[in-house]
């Protein structure tokens, strides 16, 4: 899979990031999102592959593009056998977030990226558009911290695993009213909290890399983003656990319906009979082969944002593969027309 798709998926996230970054700081989050979706879809449909979107922009009716169930890639054509090789005909599942952190792009803030994860059919948990309680941590803490333990207990375990004091730990939490008590607990335990307004995928993946000064992600974000984060952390050997949140009393906003029972029923319809189950990274991204790619839109902890220069642009991406066991940082110069200069840095 990596051999046939590796380079192609870098271009997919690069094109989405470039398109979206043109709307950076313009206060128009929907446009920043829409152009990323269009660019991602257009580039994906030039790839010799047989892909199906399992995590995307939503259901077909509400999302004209990259909706769940949409088929992408040249080899989804009926006559594909005539021009696609056997590898390209293997069915693959794709999770996309063409603009992760639309608010961040719209307001010119750090941490947004174009991102996707790929696996063979059935290899990615088709997360419903629900919330998810998340716990991400570095590889040394994998299997030691536990989403069912309190933040205080996990910080103690984390400090032992990372051989540093609790006071030296930095935990990223989304700045939401639902996290008031969690934030207090982390501070009370002695650790430091980095609050983010959006973009918990970047925060989760940052846990896997020493030097980011991010040691854990705790709290509730969206479930689709949880699966994408899990795909990266599984390949990197980091810790990731997620638990669906269906009780509107817990989140008090957005994604889910107002009735707890109604939400449980919706989950059941989707085949999720134990709504309280916590999933680890291997279960959320269970495929034999998992590929992940992200490209910075605005600057972030892991990657720089898109930088334009006369006649071109420079992007930074991260491509992770469970197959080759690599995490590649890719720095690309894109030549649009006749650039006067090629910007080295
Ligand atoms: O910040 C986020 C927004 O993602 P997007 O809509 O693609 O720009 C995500 O990282 C979060 O995981 C999540 O979507 C968010 O926590 C759910 O929204 P909210 O109700 O505002 O917390
Ligand atoms: Mn997102
Ligand atoms: Mn998005």
UniProtKB/TrEMBL annotation:
<keyword id="KW-0464">Manganese</keyword>
<dbReference type="GO" id="GO:0006094">
    <property type="term" value="P:gluconeogenesis"/>
</dbReference>
<keyword id="KW-0119">Carbohydrate metabolism</keyword>
<comment type="pathway">
    <text>Carbohydrate biosynthesis; Calvin cycle.</text>
</comment>
<dbReference type="InterPro" id="IPR004464">
    <property type="entry name" value="FBPase_class-2/SBPase"/>
</dbReference>
<dbReference type="GO" id="GO:0005829">
    <property type="term" value="C:cytosol"/>
</dbReference>
<feature type="binding site">
    <location>
        <position position="57"/>
    </location>
    <ligand>
        <name>Mn(2+) 1</name>
    </ligand>
</feature>
<dbReference type="GO" id="GO:0046872">
    <property type="term" value="F:metal ion binding"/>
</dbReference>
<keyword id="KW-0479">Metal-binding</keyword>
<comment type="subunit">
    <text>Homotetramer.</text>
</comment>
<feature type="binding site">
    <location>
        <position position="33"/>
    </location>
    <ligand>
        <name>Mn(2+) 1</name>
    </ligand>
</feature>
<feature type="binding site">
    <location>
        <position position="225"/>
    </location>
    <ligand>
        <name>Mn(2+) 2</name>
    </ligand>
</feature>
<comment type="similarity">
    <text>Belongs to the FBPase class 2 family.</text>
</comment>
<protein>
    <recommendedName>
        <fullName>D-fructose 1,6-bisphosphatase class 2/sedoheptulose 1,7-bisphosphatase</fullName>
        <ecNumber>3.1.3.11</ecNumber>
        <ecNumber>3.1.3.37</ecNumber>
    </recommendedName>
</protein>
<dbReference type="GO" id="GO:0042132">
    <property type="term" value="F:fructose 1,6-bisphosphate 1-phosphatase activity"/>
</dbReference>
<dbReference type="GO" id="GO:0050278">
    <property type="term" value="F:sedoheptulose-bisphosphatase activity"/>
</dbReference>
<feature type="binding site">
    <location>
        <position position="100"/>
    </location>
    <ligand>
        <name>Mn(2+) 2</name>
    </ligand>
</feature>
<dbReference type="Pfam" id="PF03320">
    <property type="entry name" value="FBPase_glpX"/>
</dbReference>
<dbReference type="GO" id="GO:0019253">
    <property type="term" value="P:reductive pentose-phosphate cycle"/>
</dbReference>
<dbReference type="GO" id="GO:0030388">
    <property type="term" value="P:fructose 1,6-bisphosphate metabolic process"/>
</dbReference>
<feature type="binding site">
    <location>
        <position position="97"/>
    </location>
    <ligand>
        <name>Mn(2+) 2</name>
    </ligand>
</feature>
<dbReference type="GO" id="GO:0006071">
    <property type="term" value="P:glycerol metabolic process"/>
</dbReference>
<comment type="function">
    <text>Catalyzes the hydrolysis of fructose 1,6-bisphosphate (Fru 1,6-P2) and sedoheptulose 1,7-bisphosphate (Sed 1,7-P2) to fructose 6-phosphate and sedoheptulose 7-phosphate, respectively.</text>
</comment>
<keyword id="KW-0378">Hydrolase</keyword>
<keyword id="KW-0113">Calvin cycle</keyword>
